[in-house]
Amino acid sequence: GDTDVSMLAGGVLVLPVLAFITSFVFWPGALLKAYNWYWRRRLGLVVRYSHSGSYRFCYSSRGTPGGATPSMLLLHGFSATKDMWLPVVKHIPRNQHVVCVDMPGHEGTSRTCAEDYSIQGQVGRIHQFVQSIGLDKRPFHLVGTSMGGNVAGVYAACYPAHLSSVSLLCPAGKFNSEFIIRLREMEKSQEEEEAIPLIPTTPQELENMLRLCCHTSLNLPRQVQGLLDNRIPNNDFYREVFMEIVGEKSRHSLQENLPLITAPLQVIWGKEDQVLDVSGAAVLQAALPGCQVELLDNCGHSVALERPRKVANLIMDFLSAQEVTGEDAKKHS
């Protein structure tokens, strides 16, 4: 009879829902991914792919180029993904064209070999990405944090014609901090197996990493296991990238390229940064006296996570200021 059919239909429906719920209990990593998916949808970001030959880039974007302000490309840090920028994008006006890309080998972007992971290698790949989506048709604003900040700075030196302006958030480079000094010592002892603080393998190590990166403690007991589950399969890749970016060639790349940066530059740094010391901001300012430096109180290395609204506002204000300066220059010429 009809009841059997509806019972059966009900049962069939209950099973996937049940499977869906239990999967979250056992796989918190999946929950984290679902949360990001939901957040992207709410913010109107669409995930897309572009190609350069057989190389694939994964990115999320919102809005269209050619608005009142230049397009904005955001480069995330070591072992993060494009979703790192979600808290910042939340505070960026809807009409601003925003593009967040997965850096080489990270998340949805092709994982190839070490030469793509050096800073110069990443700059080359990001250049291909920019061409693949036609972002080079008009000058755009480039934002990068940590490793992504190093890449953004070198990109600005290599492709000045592409950029309207640049924001570097605590960019990696040859700026000393206790953390970097400790890495030096690890490198000297050449103990590959020694735990790298940014590549955790246990919940405790992950909590230590979060403590190292964030000045204000994030209360994430539940998410820790999920974050760890999503990271562990990538740890060998992270080690490979890490060895490249702390290597001799990459380590000096930003400092060597600073004199070549001509685009208006904004530097944002947390005063309590334990990974890359805030003194790096003074190094940048000494090399590029015209740059605008913003130091954030009670903020650590994960600026975008700790101060998303502040970061979004600083970047948007900087963009508006560039537009005004540009208009004035046009009037006077």
UniProtKB/TrEMBL annotation:
Record-annotated AB hydrolase-1 domain positions: 70-308
InterPro entries to which the protein is assigned, alphabetical: AB_hydrolase_1, AB_hydrolase_fold, AB_hydrolase_sf
Transmembrane annotation, as ranges: 12-32
Residues of the signal peptide: none
UniProt keyword terms in alphabetical order: Membrane, Transmembrane, Transmembrane helix
Annotated source species: Seriola lalandi dorsalis
Gene Ontology cellular component list: AMPA glutamate receptor complex
Name the record gives this protein: Abhydrolase domain containing 6, acylglycerol lipase
Family indicated by similarity: Belongs to the AB hydrolase superfamily.
Keyword Membrane: yes
GO biological process: acylglycerol catabolic process
GO molecular function, one term: monoacylglycerol lipase activity
